[in-house]
Amino acid sequence: MEDSAAQADSLWTSIVSFEYWPEIGEGTIDTLVMTGFSLLFTVLIGLPVGVVLFLTSWSQRAPDLFVARLQSWTYTTLSFVVNILRSVPFLILLILLIPATRWLVGTSLGVQGSIPPLVIAAAPFFARLIETLLREVDRGVFEACRSMGATTRQMVFWALLPETFTGILAAITVTAIALVGYSAMSGVIGGGGLGDLAVRYGYQRFNTPVMIVTVAILVVLVQLIQLLGDRLVARVSHK
Amino acid sequence: MMVLRRAAVKMSAGYEAMPRTRLGSDARLCKTSGPVFAPDGFTQLIELRHVGKTYQTATGAFQALRDIDLDIRRGEVFGIIGRSGAGKSTLLRLLNLLERPTQGAVRIEGQDITQLDAPGLRKLRQHIGMVFQHFNLLSSRTVYENVRFPLRVAGELSRSEQQARVMEVLQLVGLTDQARKYPRQLSGGQRQRVGVARALANRPNLLLCDEATSALDPETTQSILRLLLEINRTLRITVVLITHGMDVIRAVADRVAILDHGRLVELGDVIDVFLNPQAETTRALLAESGVETESWHGSVGESGRVLRLTYKGEAVALPVLSRYGRELGLDFSILQGSVGRIKDMPYGQLTISVAQEDDARVAQLLAALTGHGIHHQVLR
To answer: Are both B142 and B217 inside the same structural domain?
Structure first.
């Protein structure tokens, strides 16, 4: 009883007399930068991929046989690639991608080296979210667009994306949170950020206070992202 | 354009208050080439020739439409009625090729539209309005943006012209003050008015209505039907509508086609179809909407003649009947009767029995009635 009280006391003193705040600050910024940039590229890649997946999926097949075959081929290929990327655990993907990352950004370490694997892991996930969202759009909207003589491009940009905009914001929120988690994992192979701190101090040097502070910051970060996402959705929703 | 714009801005009252003669005579308001309205009925807007539609399903081929031959006249309100699954929805969608026929030709203004390439078809669709049962508006866009959508798609007008046009059609449906609202904030009837405004934005000469009132309550249904009728009359837009309710047909249609299991079973002027239905399906549909013509069987004895008298227009059957009854010494009892209006045409239909079994006098009576323009049928 006394023993555990003393333990808690020493934990408390070590948090109070914590000397790692500069590292923690740097790690937080690195995590934010990694999450931010990888989120940006994830959306830039995942959104069009999701739209293409949807437009080539079964429900959207053209009556023209040749076009339908082309759609079918595109869907199968794209879907296969997306599934493969999603089926490889992120930690293994990180290691597998080291050569590709080096070639792409010159290093596989630090903030820079983490972004490509993060994007490659998150973009397929985001693309599937977008595909699912578009499937939920009322059939009638497509029919109305077609009856007005809209091109596919007009339908996508003027009807489908606006109609799913709140859903897209929610999907971005979910993906951002997943990216915070993934970015921490990249610490294992020297990725930088809070995950890197937790691995180097908390795991390798048994520094529990660093571990706790890291986790606490991650928890706060995730809460803030979710809160921000929910607020944005509530603001733009007209349903 | 300027004149129109100013007019649209100035008039803030509802559609009802629009100066109809001006609207109707203003050629710029309707994008029709050639004669706008042909009373002799020889100007066909749409011709369907031996049209069929077969769907390939997992269980084999399903024939949704078989050998449909149909002409739709310029300026008329043409109704298509049938039960669910009769093929009416498919038939309507053949007119803008949302569905492609597997047999036959669909001609609009003499042109076979199945031969159009993709851009040609889009162009055609931009000038055919379509109104849907569930409105199919964009929930994320304001009323204004929803109505502007087809104008953006067509890309023929500048931004300020688009604005003027949107306000003009919103004026037409009486929603100018709702432009900034979102569909969610409107009632069902108002949403359908937005749907109609959107369909009219590109000044079509053909308006397709897909069960446009089926999701609305009876009162709202009436107001939307009145709106469609006004559009037909003032803008001279041909309206093709599908419905499963005879009431809708009776309220607005000039001619009607009855579909049953993909076949066209009856086609004619609405009043003739109502008063003298030929096909079994038609009779059944009429009976369902309260227009019962066979219930006299229960209210008459075994003997005596039963006659059905039908008149259209201002002919009034009863005084004529009582006069000849007196002169010929015949006694009638009325078994069934209805008088009313179909669209604008007054009509009456009486089923009577004659007490006296005297064919000579009955024949005299029938001849006299024919002389007064009263159509008759000897039922027994």
So the answer is: yes
**Final residue of a structural domain among B261, B286, B311:** B286
How many domains, chain A?
1
Does the reported pTM lie above 0.90? no
Say if residue B103 is in the same domain as residue B145.
yes
pLDDT digits (tens, 9 = 90+) for A34-75: 999 999 999 999 999 999 999 999 888 888 889 999 999 999
Instruction: Give A137 to chain B, closest Cα distance, Å.
Output: 10
Which residues neighbour B29 within 8 Å (Cβ) at sequence distance 6 or greater?
B4, B23, B203, B235
ipTM of the complex: 0.83
For residue B211, the chain A residues in CB contact (below 8 A) are none
What torsion, rounded to 10 degrees, do the Cα atoms A66, A68, A74, A77 define? -100
- Cβ neighbours, 10 Å, residue B220: 17
Residue B192: give the domain boundaries. Answer: 2-286
CATH number for B332: 3.30.70.260
Cα B213 from Cα B204, distance rounded (Å): 20
| A206 CB burial (10 A radius; 0-12, 13-18, 19+) | exposed
Chain mean pLDDT for chain A:
89
Q: Which of A149, A163, A239 sits opposite B122 (nearest CB)?
A: A149
Tokens of A22: 């500069």
